[in-house]
Amino acid sequence: MLSANLSLTSKAIRAPLQRRLSQSIRDVFSTMTYGPAPEDSGPAKDYIDSHGGVFGAFVNGEWVKRDDAPTAPSISPCDGSVLAHTMQASTADVDDAV
Predict the structure, then answer these.
(1) 47 and 63 in contact (C-beta within 8 Å)?
(2) Nearest to 86 by CA among 69, 75, 71
(3) How many C-beta atoms lie closer than 10 Å to residue 87's C-beta?
(4) CA distance 23 to 17
(5) Tens of pLDDT along 8-23?
(6) Is the model's pTM score more than 0.85?
(7) What dihedral angle (degrees, nearest 10) is formed by the CA atoms of 10, 12, 13, 17?
(8) What is the DSSP letter of 76?
């Protein structure tokens, strides 16, 4: 009998709390505006810089670059600036990787 009462009590306590939480989440999502990400981009930029801003294909745990391969820019979704250039793999490059 006691466990039945506890179960009813906990349900009675949880239901209004869940309603309040879901309402506040709904309110937050309906009023969200774009803002800057709180993460620091420094480590990512340092990593890109350490590779000279140009990346090849990552094959068997190593970066493989072909000097004659075309590259494509990797664009920052934040501000549209070019973050790095990435090698465009050929069919032969893909075959080597697989």
Answers:
(1) no
(2) 71
(3) 20
(4) 10
(5) 556 666 666 666 666 6
(6) no
(7) 130
(8) P
